[in-house]
Amino acid sequence: MTELDTPTGTLLRLAAFTTDPAGGNPAGVWLGDALPDPTEMQQIATAVGYSETAFLAPDGSGDPGRFRVRYFSPAKEVAFCGHATIASGVALAERGWPASLVLQTNDGVVDLDVVGDTDGRFQATLTSVEPWVRELPDGLLDRLLGLLGWRRDELDPALPPGLAFAGVRHPIIAVKELSTLAQIDYDFEPMRTLMLEHDLTTLQLIWRETATRFRARDPFAAGGVVEDPATGAAAAALGAYLRERGEISAPATFEIAQGIEMGRPSLLTVSIVEDDPRIRVSGTAVPMPS
User: Fold this and answer.
1) Which of 168, 268, 252 lies closest to 216, judged by CA?
2) Model confidence pLDDT, tens digit, residues 234-254
3) For position 1, what pLDDT does the model report?
């Protein structure tokens, strides 16, 4: 695994939601005995340059499976990041840590379970904090569509726009045609300003291919990144949205294909179970080349 020892810990680089390092979403994973101060974490994340870097250290409980985690994009701290969590689970498993982990994020506890297969590859599953789904604030949809260059009549009426949270906030906007999803070209700074104004992490822009498969694209201007090739937090938010609308009911699993237009294809698996409001997101991760 690609490793870089820093003065305070070890920095790893992995691609999440893929078995090919040329695909998926690259993430930094920093491991140490204690978290650096926020200024140092921001400097490391900015230098790494990936959409997010996760910083993990033991939480002080003495339990080897419990960690404090913080996430930083190149521009700012983010309360939760799904793909960096998946990468963290695989990185820890490959280094001999327990298969069942508990991560204390800024916004609550995220469970993380890792299993291996006969090929020696690990798959991690995160279980989100308890999600919620709401309507978009007045006027926000039209402002987002204006920046995206989309029209209201291009949206899928069966999946009306909404706002979903499973650790961080994501607008859910579904289109009728895949060709619309292929056409994303927005002014970065106005989009970044709007997303920060409404505390949005990414835009979860989707097209429903089948009842159990979606295509997604996720602008991440709020974090200083034009687009994310795989967004586990948004996948969890979409699971909450679909369940809230009755599009799926427990037990259920669906897939999200993302990153295709960016040349970094990714596959995210989302599950809901009975008697648990939380959402599960699963994926693999592999080391990035040096």
Assistant:
1) 268
2) 999 999 999 999 999 999 999
3) 47
Single out the residue of 86, 53, 19 nearest to residue 265, CA to CA. 19
- Strands 77-78 and 66-72, bridge-based pairing: antiparallel
pLDDT digits (tens, 9 = 90+) for 126-159: 999 999 999 999 999 999 999 999 999 999 999 9
Fold type of domain 132-276: Diaminopimelate Epimerase; Chain A, domain 1 (3.10.310)
Cα–Cα distance, 81 to 237 (Å, whole number): 12
Which SS3 state, helix, strand or coil, does residue 213 take?
A: strand
Distance (Å) of CA 152 to CA 142, 145, 271: 8, 8, 30
Pick from 128, 105, 160, 156: nearest CA to 240? 128
Per-residue burial over 55-79, b = 16 or more CB atoms within 10 Å of its CB, e = otherwise: bbbbeeeeeebbbbbbbbbbbebbb
